[in-house]
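Researcher: Quick test of sequence recovery. Tokens follow.
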């Protein structure tokens, strides 16, 4: 029996990603790589109008094309009761339009053909006759009394209002404001953006008419939840539905919703008895699938003259598009926006939100964000900076004065969240020291004297990730809990099956590291299986940085369960009672006699060859984790910029990001996540938005208009770390995947506004294109 000590590459090791071996060799299996025998191809006809009645759809020319097998319309779908489907927020969404179209790019009909190009060409031959209607492209237009009613098919819906939602205590907040020396307010718009993953959405639906088995290979971040929703929508028995998410080329929230294309492809496969593949092109992805943000926000901060924060009031209008299909836990209409009090010890707060239908694509997804935390973080961090200037204080000092202090945790916010742990001052001090804040401020003064525009911006964000405790978090009633199953093979190798699905985050590596840490088998000896609903435990999916807080916890807990049984087997092998067995991974030894020992590998073999009488053979367990709370990662980002007064071009001179996500499982993967998030945050701050003209035409439907930063534009990032474990997470980890996208936009914008404040510029809404910055400078220069 070998008891040699080898270093286990568990938590804290920058293990190279196991999945990269196949991915960087081009050997990954993405949906569009897959071919099934007899497969057909589907292409979708989309509405050119943002709002129009449909007078009729003539499919005869398309149907006559050689190679076309079928043309599907809303009418045909309606015959099978599938013209409409439920959304994740409990609304309904047209699968294929029947009565009218409600946004440009809406699905109207589909062609199924033997060849993908034939399908696409035949779509052009479908003659749809429309009568254009008045168009609504903003919530402000939607609430006007004479606005056209977009969802006139809904019983009882006589306007475009979807919901009103409040959080916090309105009266306590009024009282706080009554005591204020000063109230600072900010109106800001977080524009509609798009996750734009490298791989667009798509599926292959394969319904076997002989067995009734329905297998859907799908770009999905939430395969289990989708299986259940499919069973409910189609009436197919759930045990016959198998959703497989193969390798995914990014998701960022875009691959959470159920899109009409999935439903039509499945219905077509059912009707035709052959597999049907549907793959979106880039423009289809940008104009019709889950957008993010689109929040018009108003914030007010009540302060004492010495900078003490007394209260926060915020109201917002959410542009939900034509169908309310956003991804939020059922109870929370604007997700976790109520984390808007941020990192501050705020005595009172009140949030009011109203959602409206508009003639825009549905699906407000959490683009690298935990359910609207990004918008909240942006609001408070912009507001705090402006407040500092109004008070004549340095923005860093105002933050330090009001941060929740480490000894105040667990800290209950005035909107009812309970932050688990934090050291906000620690993260900020490190960020300021790294960037050389005091020297930068002096340099700024000199440069200002020379007529240069220099700015320094800070954002000290707090996130809320890991939804969530079953009492408060569900989607369509499905509780947001997640599972893990661990099986140790006789030779001491293992397979871990998890409910989350990686889209590039490295789960095959990090979750193996958690098992390695807990039981002492090296990560390369642990296969991690995910993404196939027939072979993995149930869970609500991977988004909102929830994998580590939920599935990571389930993985630690299932490992501990396996060790419980392993200890019994070790006691049997060592011929002592269980209480006398000590476990220091990977070794079980006898208390007081450390030389008498067996390894986890010895125990695994014995679990199948030499187990005690009366014990079940094998070494495996499963665990479903119901988190007691969310986890609250945080950090401070500091940015230095120079703005060219003649062109409005701004250059990032320094970008320092200090993150605290508790215990880091794989520091290299964490840094990769932060780099990615900072890049996306920069893209949103500097260049990205999906806009619409007054006719509802989507501007931003290609990468010529919707810009992605390349390595040339992307700033250089300097990372720092503090570590405040989550007290309730089994390994002390908090999520990290989206922290940088959540926290960084405000830091970039604050830096530009810091440069322009002396000119009188108080706000510029993102994206801060050079044209907008230049206009703001010119407007500030113009006589009042
Ligand atoms: O849900 P998602 O995977 O997008 O986000 P996450 O839970 O924040 O994890 C992103 C990646 O970073 C995963 O591979 C995690 O296991 C890893 N991670 C880590 O190594 N340490 C942490 N404290 C948090 C995440």
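Model:
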């Amino acid at each position: 029996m070998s008891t040699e000590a080898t270093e286990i590459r568990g938590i804290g090791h920058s293990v190279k990603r196991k999945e990269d071996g196949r991915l960087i060799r081009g050997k990954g299996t993405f949906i569009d790589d897959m071919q099934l025998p007899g497969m057909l191809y589907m292409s979708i006809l989309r509405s050119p109008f943002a709002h129009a009645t449909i007078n009729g759809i003539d499919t005869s020319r398309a149907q006559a094309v050689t190679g076309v097998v079928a043309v599907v319309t809303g009418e045909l779908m309606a015959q099978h009761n599938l013209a409409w489907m439920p959304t994740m927020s409990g609304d309904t969404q047209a699968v294929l339009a029947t009565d009218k179209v409600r946004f440009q790019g809406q699905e109207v009909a589909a062609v199924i053909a033997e060849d993908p190009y034939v399908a696409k060409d035949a779509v052009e031959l479908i003659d749809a006759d429309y009568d254009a209607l008045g168009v609504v492209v903003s919530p402000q237009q939607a609430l006007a009394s004479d606005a056209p009613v977009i969802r006139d098919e809904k019983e009882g819906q006589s306007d475009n209002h979807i919901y009103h939602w409040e959080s916090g205590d309105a009266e306590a907040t009024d009282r706080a404001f009554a005591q204020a020396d000063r109230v600072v307010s900010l109106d800001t718009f977080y524009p509609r953006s798009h996750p734009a993953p490298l791989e667009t959405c798509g599926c292959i639906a394969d319904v076997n008419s002989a067995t009734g088995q329905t297998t859907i290979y799908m770009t999905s971040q939430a395969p289990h939840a989708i299986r259940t929703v499919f069973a409910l929508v189609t009436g197919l028995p759930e045990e016959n539905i198998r959703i497989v998410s193969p390798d995914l080329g990014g998701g960022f929230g875009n691959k959470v919703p159920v899109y009409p294309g999935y439903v039509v492809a499945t219905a077509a496969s059912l009707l035709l008895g052959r597999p049907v593949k549907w793959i979106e092109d880039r423009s289809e992805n940008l104009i019709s699938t889950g957008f993010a943000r689109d929040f018009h926000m108003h914030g007010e901060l009540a302060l004492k003259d010495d900078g003490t924060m007394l209260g926060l009031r915020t109201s917002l209008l959410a542009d939900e598009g034509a169908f309310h299909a956003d991804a939020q836990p059922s109870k929370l209409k604007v997700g976790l926006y109520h984390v808007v009090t941020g990192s501050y010890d705020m005595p009172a707060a009140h949030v009011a939100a109203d959602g409206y239908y508009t003639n825009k694509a549905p699906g407000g997804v959490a683009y690298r964000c935990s359910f609207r935390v990004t918008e909240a973080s942006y609001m408070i961090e912009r507001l705090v900076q402006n407040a500092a200037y109004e008070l004549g204080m340095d923005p860093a000092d105002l933050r330090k004065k009001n941060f929740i202090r480490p000894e105040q945790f667990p800290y209950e916010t005035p909107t009812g969240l309970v932050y688990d742990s934090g050291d906000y001052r620690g993260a900020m001090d490190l960020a300021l020291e790294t960037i050389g804040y005091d020297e930068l401020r002096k340099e700024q003064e000199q440069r200002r004297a020379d007529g240069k525009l220099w700015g320094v911006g800070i954002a000290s964000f707090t996130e809320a990730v890991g939804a969530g405790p079953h009492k408060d978090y569900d989607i369509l009633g499905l509780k947001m809990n997640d599972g893990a199953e661990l099986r140790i093979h006789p030779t001491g190798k293992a397979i871990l099956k998890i409910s989350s699905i990686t889209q590039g985050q490295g789960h095959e590596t990090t979750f193996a590291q958690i098992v390695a840490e807990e039981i002492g088998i090296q990560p390369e000896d642990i296969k991690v299986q995910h993404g196939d609903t027939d072979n993995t435990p149930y869970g609500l999916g991977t988004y909102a940085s929830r994998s580590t807080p939920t599935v990571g916890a389930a993985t630690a807990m299932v490992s501990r369960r396996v060790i419980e049984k392993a200890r019994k087997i070790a006691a049997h092998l060592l011929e002592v009672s269980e209480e006398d067995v000590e476990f220091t991974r990977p070794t079980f030894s006898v208390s007081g006699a450390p030389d008498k020992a067996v390894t986890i590998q010895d125990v695994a073999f014995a679990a199948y060859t030499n187990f005690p009488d009366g014990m079940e053979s094998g070494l495996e367990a499963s665990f479903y984790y119901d988190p007691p709370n969310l986890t609250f990662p945080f950090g401070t980002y500091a940015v230095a910029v120079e703005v060219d007064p003649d062109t409005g071009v701004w250059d990032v001179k320094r970008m320092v990001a200090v993150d605290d996500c508790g215990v880091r499982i794989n520091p290299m993967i964490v840094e990769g996540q932060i780099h990615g998030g900072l890049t996306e945050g920069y893209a949103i701050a500097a260049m990205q938005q999906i806009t619409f003209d007054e006719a509802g035409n989507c501007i931003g439907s290609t990468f010529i208009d919707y810009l992605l930063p390349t390595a040339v534009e992307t700033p250089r990032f300097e990372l720092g770390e503090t570590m405040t474990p989550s007290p309730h997470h089994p390994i002390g980890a908090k999520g990290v995947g989206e922290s940088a996208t959540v926290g960084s936009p405000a830091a970039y914008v604050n830096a530009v506004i810091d440069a322009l404040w002396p000119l009188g510029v108080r706000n510029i809404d993102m994206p801060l294109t050079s044209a907008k910055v230049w206009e703001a400078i010119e407007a500030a220069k113009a006589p009042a």
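Residues 303 and 309 are 5 Å apart (CA to CA).
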